[in-house]
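Milestone M4 deliverable, item 7.
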Amino acid sequence: MKNIVIVMIVAVLASVATVMISKSIGISGEAWIGGAVGGAVSGFLAVKLANKTSDE
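Output delivered:
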């Protein structure tokens, strides 16, 4: 359960950071960018946490 919460929090933070960065460089109205980055980060982190848990 702890790993799921960590993955969700990191995905949200990555999405928000992506949207803020894209708006600061002039890209606006592209909500899919934040979602795509959040999904990619959460998938990567979930795999890393799953590997770490299975190694222990």
